Amino acid sequence: MVKKRLVIGLCVVLVALLAFPGFLVAGDKININTASKEQLTELKGIGPVTADRIIEYREKNGKFETVEELTEVKGIGDGTLMVIKEFIVVE
User: Fold this and answer.
1) Rounded to an integer, what is the distance from CA 47 to the centroid of its chain?
2) Where are the beta strands (DSSP E) in the chain?
3) pLDDT of residue 28
4) Could you give the 3-state DSSP secondary structure of residue 72?
5) Rounded mean pLDDT, 74-83
């Protein structure tokens, strides 16, 4: 019974890692000043439209100085920022 639970647990972890490949490499963060649309959409809560808005914002206003500045982009509120903050960086 214990062996069966261990195998099931390992399968769950494997499926999670395959579903979220960004978690396979610890420490990788997305630089919101250089990220492509595809990279931005890897972030939870950021779809293609919001990714376009991020890119448009940085083209119009220059580089983001802080990750908190993302809340200036339409569609990104404090809640979304809380979810993605640990996965992004400004450089």
Assistant:
1) 10
2) 30-31, 88-89
3) 86
4) helix
5) 96
Pick the closest to residue 55 from 35, 69, 41 (CA basis). 35
Alpha carbon separation from 32 to 38, 47, 50, 60, 81 (Å, rounded): 12, 14, 12, 14, 12
Which residue, among 70, 72, 62, has the nearest Cα to 89 in the 3D structure? 70
Q: What tokens appear for 47 in the block? A: 């779809």
- pLDDT, tens only, 19-37: 555 444 446 899 999 999 9
Q: Of 88, 67, 87, which Cα lies nearest the Cα of 78?
A: 67
Closest CA to 64 of 28, 47, 40: 40
User: What DSSP character marks residue 65?
Assistant: S
Tokens (6 digits) for 38: 């595809």
- Give CA–CA dist 41/50, Å, rounded: 8
Side chain identity at 44, as an amino acid letter? K
Nearest to 74 by CA among 41, 44, 50, 48: 50
